[in-house]
Amino acid sequence: MSLNNNMVFNNQQITNLPQHSNIEFKPLAANALLHVQLNWLAFYIPLITGLVVACYLNAAFANLAQTYLLIGMPIIIILSMFYNVVSIKLQGVAMRTHDIAFKKGIIWQQIVILPLARVQHIEVHRGPIERKLGLASLKLYSAGGMSADLQISGLTHDDCKNMRQFVQNYRNDDNIAQATPADE
């Protein structure tokens, strides 16, 4: 077996990669914060109710935990509500020609960029609170995954429908381009 010494391997350096820091993100819907706060409230009400019942039924627990509950619970609730405000303000979504980008996070910031060519399935979800507020969540799945590769909550229902249509149009245009034979 002989090696062809005439072959020259050339690996060009890419110098002009697109910068994700230049993406202009659109903020979430105005009701997104209210939606998140109502979801947390739906968690805190049963928790506080359970603690009140435990204090009512068990006097020893009530004497031991009364100070912690009266001071700690309001602090935890206020901190979580403040965290939600900051978190929602920092989230954003961007639809670009060939991908969709979503940013989130306060301490650990994350930007997820999903190429539209890889999207296999799209779902729009609307829970009861979301329906009441005119919101929806968009889930995008790529090939080979069992869970959503990108989930964006806090969008208006119209934005979700428009984004889903944009992705479907992109996929249809891509399929048409692949099916059309190239002119020789």
Automatic annotation (TrEMBL):
<feature type="transmembrane region" description="Helical">
    <location>
        <begin position="41"/>
        <end position="61"/>
    </location>
</feature>
<keyword id="KW-1133">Transmembrane helix</keyword>
<keyword id="KW-0472">Membrane</keyword>
<protein>
    <recommendedName>
        <fullName>YdbS-like PH domain-containing protein</fullName>
    </recommendedName>
</protein>
<keyword id="KW-0812">Transmembrane</keyword>
<dbReference type="InterPro" id="IPR005182">
    <property type="entry name" value="YdbS-like_PH"/>
</dbReference>
<dbReference type="Pfam" id="PF03703">
    <property type="entry name" value="bPH_2"/>
</dbReference>
<feature type="domain" description="YdbS-like PH">
    <location>
        <begin position="94"/>
        <end position="150"/>
    </location>
</feature>
<feature type="transmembrane region" description="Helical">
    <location>
        <begin position="67"/>
        <end position="86"/>
    </location>
</feature>
